[in-house]
Amino acid sequence: MPAGSEPLPLPRVYRPLGPRLAAVMAIIAIIAILGLLWFVGFSDATRARVTWLQRGTVIALFGLGIACLHAMARSRIEAHEDRLVVVNGYRRREFEWAQVIAARLAPGAPWVVLDLADGTTCSAMGIQGSDGARAKADVRELRTILAARS
Questions:
Q1: Boundary of a domain, candidates 72, 105, 135
Q2: I need a surface site. Which of 25, 73, 85, 143 has the fewest CB within 10 A?
Q3: Across the chain, how many H-helices and E-strands are there?
Q4: Model pLDDT for residues 3-14, shown as the tens digit of each residue
């Protein structure tokens, strides 16, 4: 960190922009397509022939798709004073700052990879390479926080 600069305020949360927008737009598109198909595309006679089991199957598949899109959209990295929290889908992992050695986003990589003190790595989908310059800036900021906390 340069001399005279203020430390970054914590907590700080990093979330991917592109995947969140894609998830929301996909959910809206699926609802619109299924709604139009059901109410405009099918006649009353066709709708009457659809059983409750068939409707339940479509609703269950729709719910599964929504759950997957929600998991993608909720991915994040939270930098707190005492720890780093990584949420990938429905899995949450917490690391003390001493456990995290480095954060890297290789060219063409889908998301940030954290190098851990025990020799393993942890994917962190909260900063995704598809966000371009925003992702690079977020990685630089995360590295600054990591350097200040190590």
A1: 72
A2: 25
A3: 4, 7
A4: 445 667 889 999
